[in-house]
Specification:
Blueprint lengths: L1 H12 L4 H8 L5 H24 L2 H5 L5 H25 L5 H19 L1 H5 L3 H25 L4 H8 L2 H13 L5 H20 L6 H26 L4 H22 L9 H26 L4 H6 L3 H12 L7 H18 L4
Helix pairs in contact: 1-5, 2-3, 3-14, 5-9, 5-14, 5-16, 6-13, 6-14, 8-12, 8-13, 9-12, 9-16, 10-11, 10-12, 11-17
Length: 348
């Protein structure tokens, strides 16, 4: 899965997957060696991405796109989002959660603001209002995620948080006072059962129960974010809303970290590299290019690719970070992935 996804990344961005192959070949090495290889791999991706962006090569390549390339782009987008859990986990060893969020989203706002400065100049009141509302909601969601990620494995965090896809129709059913479809109820039941097995798998970790609770709260908040995004994007430009959302998240996280007295910047080269990967690959790339890919494929097809996000985080956590695997964890993975695939499957 990782190899195939990185080859898709190569097809879309134009980078060589040689470094990725080295990671896969040498996955028997200790975790510290694997992380160093990930840094080498990411550095190659990052330098090529910046070079292509500076020449606007990427944007020109997306002016006309086939369905197959659009699918590869979406696959790369969700792989990029899945890597954010591992990069955040590594940064949490040396930085506090709110500091990471403050630096990450402030820098992402500055990058996208510079790239789409004309849209910001023409910002309307609905776009501003929608961006601020989403910024508040996503800040709460990311706060739960970061503090939970400190306590449990990356793959477990990603799987539980992506349960939001199943929770959205449940929220809608409550708001509209209508019973959800049977398929939705079955998927929700499978997802909750999966969380139960993952809780058993994390019970040996100190604070594992609290970590599961925090990530579950992140999933619930994420579902609210998805519903709110759909409502505010109908009356304003979605790109402008997204940029303002990132700015609001950066400001709120910065204020929170200053009030807690824990604000700090990355100090070492490796820390800055991890932060730049979070900013450019996970935030800017994941945000800016998902709408481009979805323009050429049906929404149902795009929804299936969301499963790649937790799969990427899980495989990277096991192969690169040395996270353990157990029977209860495998059962939890299988139940939640089944719920996601079943919910994203086309209606008969």
């Amino acid at each position: 899965m990782i190899a195939a996804s990185l080859l898709c990344y190569n097809a879309v961005i134009g980078t060589s997957p040689c470094c990725c192959v080295r990671v896969l070949i040498e996955k028997g090495e200790p975790p510290i060696v694997r992380r160093r290889l990930v840094c080498e791999m990411g550095g190659h991706f990052l330098s090529n991405m910046l070079f292509n962006l500076s020449r606007r090569k990427i944007l020109k390549g997306f002016s006309v796109m086939s369905t197959s390339k659009a699918k590869m782009l979406l696959l790369a987008v969700f792989v990029a989002r899945g890597t954010s859990f591992l990069f955040s986990k590594i940064l949490l060893h040396s930085m506090m959660p709110m500091s990471i969020l403050a630096v990450r989203f402030t820098m992402a706002f500055l990058v996208l603001g510079a790239a789409f400065c004309r849209k910001l100049k023409n910002c309307t009141l609905p776009s501003l209002r929608g961006g601020i509302i989403l910024g508040i909601l996503y800040t709460v969601c990311m706060t739960f995620e970061m503090y939970g990620l400190r306590l449990i494995d990356t793959g477990v965090s990603a799987l539980i948080e992506n349960m939001a896809i199943v929770l959205v129709p449940v929220y809608v059913a409550v708001l509209t006072r209508k019973m959800p479809r049977m398929k939705t109820m079955v998927c929700a039941g499978l997802a909750v059962a999966g969380v139960g097995f993952l809780s058993l798998a994390q019970s040996h970790l100190e604070g594992g129960g609290l970590g599961i609770l925090l990530i579950s709260l992140a999933a619930m908040t994420y579902a609210a974010c998805i519903i709110t995004t759909e409502k505010v994007s109908h009356e304003a430009d979605p790109i402008t809303i997204g940029i303002i959302q990132l700015g609001a998240m950066g400001i709120l996280s910065l204020v929170a970290s200053l009030l807690l007295g824990e604000f700090s910047l990355p100090e070492t080269g490796n820390q800055w590299f991890m932060m730049l990967m979070l900013v450019l690959v996970c935030s800017c790339f994941g945000f800016a290019f998902q709408p481009v890919g979805q323009k050429y494929v049906p929404a149902e097809t795009a929804a299936v690719f969301t499963v790649v996000n937790p799969l990427t985080a899980s495989l990277m956590g096991i192969t690169l970070a040395g996270e353990s695997i157990s029977v209860s964890k495998l059962i939890g993975y299988a139940l939640i992935l089944t719920a996601l695939l079943l919910y994203n499957s086309k209606r008969s």
